[in-house]
């Protein structure tokens, strides 16, 4: 499988409001101009850190197009806008959730957090039917550890089992085990959000707080 350059940005560019995802003062129009310029500079490679792999190809999936440049994508969106069709803007198209069945080339394209969520979806799907309504491609590392999937009793891990230390989360139930590293990792909200359909499809991701919308709000997250 190719590395998930095609999906890595799409997991957090989730909202139609650019300033909820992008660092101000960059909005939808500014981002399109920047990427269009980068497209001509970085070339048309199908993998790696390029505009083609990270934006054009995933937007082709959302628009059912076969564009080979971002300029082509923008033209399609302008045609949609003139015809009153959706999506009609760059940020609206980017916010469409990545579908787990989408293939880039002959196979799936995943980053590490997406790969882990795919594993849980495959292995735990029988335990909870809601997994069928969750896109693994939309889960970031933070989303993965905040899912309420883990033991809540704190009895699962001991100091002998965790050479890097056992941590009890101050903002979520249960404890977790660190197996390596000299710095203690604090996972805020660990094991605290029950699974729900469409989980993390519409979440903002704006610094410095990265405040998450309330769960089960169909207009947000």
Task: For the structure shown, list the relevant keywords.
two-stranded antiparallel sheet, 221 residues, elongated, mainly alpha, 3% strand
Describe this structure as you would to a colleague.
The chain has a two-stranded antiparallel sheet. The chain has a domain at about 5-95. The longest helix is centred in the first third of the chain and has 15 residues, at about 30-40. It has about 220 residues and is mainly α. The model has no long low-confidence stretch (mean pLDDT about 85). The radius of gyration is 19 Å and the shape is elongated. The protein has helices at about 30-40, 50-65, 70-85, 90-95, 110-125, 140-145; strands spanning about 165-170, 175. Helices cover about 30% and strands about 5% of the residues. The chain starts with about 25 loop residues before the first helix and ends in a 44-residue tail after the last strand.
By helix and strand content, what is the structural category? Answer: mainly alpha
Strand content: under 5%
Report Rg.
19 Å
Distance between the termini: 28 Å
Largest sheet: 2 strands, antiparallel
The strands making up the biggest β-sheet line up spatially as: 1-2
- How many extended strands? 2
Order of helices and strands: HHHHHHEE
Task: Identify low-pLDDT runs.
Answer: none
Describe the global form.
elongated
**What is the helix tally?**
6
Q: Percent helix among the residues?
A: 25-40%
Output mean pLDDT: 84
């Amino acid at each position: 499988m190719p590395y998930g350059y095609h999906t890595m940005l799409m997991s957090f560019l989730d909202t139609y409001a650019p300033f909820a995802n992008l660092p101000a003062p960059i909005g939808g129009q500014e981002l399109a101009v920047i990427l269009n310029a980068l497209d001509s500079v970085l070339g048309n490679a199908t993998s790696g850190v390029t505009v083609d792999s990270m934006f054009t190809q995933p937007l082709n999936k959302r628009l059912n197009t076969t564009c080979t440049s971002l300029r082509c994508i923008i033209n399609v969106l302008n045609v949609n806008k003139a015809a009153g069709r959706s999506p009609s803007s760059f940020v609206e198209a980017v916010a469409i959730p990545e579908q787990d069945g989408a293939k880039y080339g002959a196979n799936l394209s995943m980053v590490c957090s997406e790969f882990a969520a795919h594993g849980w979806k495959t292995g735990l799907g029988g335990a909870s039917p809601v997994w069928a309504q969750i896109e693994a491609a939309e889960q970031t590392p933070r989303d993965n550890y905040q899912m309420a999937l883990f033991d809540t009793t704190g009895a699962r891990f001991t100091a002998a089992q965790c050479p890097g230390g056992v941590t009890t989360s101050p903002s979520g139930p249960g404890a977790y085990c660190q197996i390596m590293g000299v710095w203690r990792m604090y996972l805020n909200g660990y094991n605290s959000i029950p699974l729900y359909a469409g989980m993390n499809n519409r979440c903002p991701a704006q610094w410095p707080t990265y405040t998450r919308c309330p769960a089960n709000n169909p207009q947000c997250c």
